[in-house]
Design a protein that fits this description.
By secondary structure, this protein is mostly beta strands. It has a single domain, classed as outer membrane lipoprotein receptor (LolB), chain A (Clam). The protein has helices spanning about 5-20, 20-25, 135-150; strands at about 25-35, 35-50, 50-65, 65-75, 80-90, 95-105, 105-115, 115-125, 130, 155-160, 165-180, 185-195, 195-205, 210-215, 220-225, 225-230.
């Protein structure tokens, strides 16, 4: 067997360091908080696959008035464009199942909810993110697409009711500081506006999602081990 030269070892090491983090695989675990109280958990995992990436998300929220569980799987292209998504959820005892995929010049949503089935055809856009409620994997994908597309021509597929596709407007704010697992990190701050609702997104140096202040009033996704300095919203309720 031919031996690798010293130069080959150096080259392989350089390639491993330079290879995008998403190609090697990304994951994250989050707490779902409401006004500083933890009410659930969320996680995602993205791994390299043949001709793209496989992504999955799990979400559980349990509180008065909301009993929400979600499982989502996706196939993404090498450019992180959506190729197929499947969602199964239970919302206050009601089962919801959604399958989404491109179909010629359109995007097809098959939705089963409340005992009824519907099919919706949406205008196709290449850089469209499938965005269920409380899904950190979807926000992570949006951040990666935003970095590649200079924050332009981004879209969100919202699997609510009959489903819709909405333009994503991104505004960049000044960097902030935070700690991740006790280490200081520079935190990028973006505000995403989708169908008139704003979401504050805080990401790390490699565009990894650290925190999202969600459009649902008072809710936030916070990566475990991360603290924003100062916090956009209190991590724990203030004491009187």
């Amino acid at each position: 067997m031919r031996r690798l030269s010293f130069f080959s070892f150096v080259l392989l090491g350089w390639l491993a360091a330079a290879w995008p983090a998403a190609a090697q695989g990304q994951s994250g675990s989050f707490e779902v908080a409401l006004n500083g109280h933890v009410v659930g958990t969320a996680s995602f995992r993205m791994a390299a696959a043949k001709q793209g990436y496989d992504s999955s998300s799990l979400v559980t929220v349990a509180m008065k008035g909301i009993d929400y569980a979600l499982s989502k799987t996706e196939r993404l292209s090498l450019a992180h464009y959506l190729r197929h998504a499947e969602l199964s959820a239970a919302v206050n005892g009601e089962a919801v199942h959604v399958v989404a995929a491109p179909d010629a010049a359109q995007f097809l949503l098959n939705i089963s909810a409340n005992g009824k089935n519907s099919t919706t055809r949406l205008t196709a856009h290449a850089a469209a993110v499938f965005l269920p409620d409380f899904d950190p994997g979807a926000w992570e994908t949006l951040l990666m697409l935003a970095a590649k597309q200079n924050n332009r021509d981004l879209w969100a597929i919202l699997p609510k009711d009959a489903g819709s596709i909405e333009a994503v407007q991104l505004a960049t704010y000044a960097d902030q500081q935070g700690t991740l697992d006790g280490k200081t990190v520079t935190v990028h701050h973006l505000v995403a506006t989708i169908a008139g609702a704003k979401t504050d997104l805080f990401s790390g140096p490699e565009n990894q999602l650290l925190q999202a202040e969600l459009p649902q009033q008072g809710f936030a996704l916070v990566r475990k081990g991360f603290v924003l300095t100062p916090s956009a919203k209190p991590i724990a309720p203030a004491e009187n």
